[in-house]
Design a protein that fits this description.
257 residues; alpha/beta; 2-enoyl-CoA Hydratase, Chain A, domain 1; 2 domains; 10 helices; 19% strand
Amino acid sequence: MTFVRLSIVAHVGWLEFDRPPVNAFTREMVEETHDAIAAALADPGVRVVVLASAVDRYFSAGADLNVFKGIGRDGMRQWATRCHDIVRLLRGSPKPLLAAINGTAVGGGLEMTLHCDLRFAARDARLGQPEINIAFIPPIATTQALARLIGRPRAIRYLFEGGLVPATEALAWGLVDELVEPAALRAHVQAYAGSLAGKSPSALAAIRRTVTLGGGMGFDEGMAYEMETVVNLAGTPDFEEGVDAFLAKRKPTWKTQ
């Protein structure tokens, strides 16, 4: 791949945007991002996936606007369809998804992090959705994710204004979950991801399904979904191993990979 790096460190798959100087997305970069996510999710050696940037001072500058020059409705439908394919991969992931957000984070790359489970940001990061300034809206299911994540009134104002928000304010909103000193961001996220990689993959997948997918259902429907998930987990080798290990006061060895 040319614009996306994929590396594995202790069962943690790092997917890093790498199109200097600012990680502006072309169609090729979008395709590479889709394929890298799919590869990480399919790799049994990867238990946790992290979205990050290999470019200093920029997590993402959003779309390279040269792509949108004369794109028209049909072209935009193709672009947005591929972006939504990425959303479906992320939301349907059986593996925990984390984001390590550094520097300036706007547009498409930042939008992908909204579909992660947790977002860690450098204290000096700045986040924004400036699409309003080109008479556009974020196309990576952002209107839906933002309203659910930070609430409709705040999401509306954030998108209306199109400005950059400092990481401290993003934390107060719930747009990010934890702030980290810039120099420590990668090591901190790796340590947290490593702690998740030591947990049962089947239980992690069940949590993602019930919270991410079940959370979009009506309460009774979500409760029924939880019921089926609980019943299915009870028949897994991991559940048996977890109970046996707890009773024997030993560290479990998970069967699921």
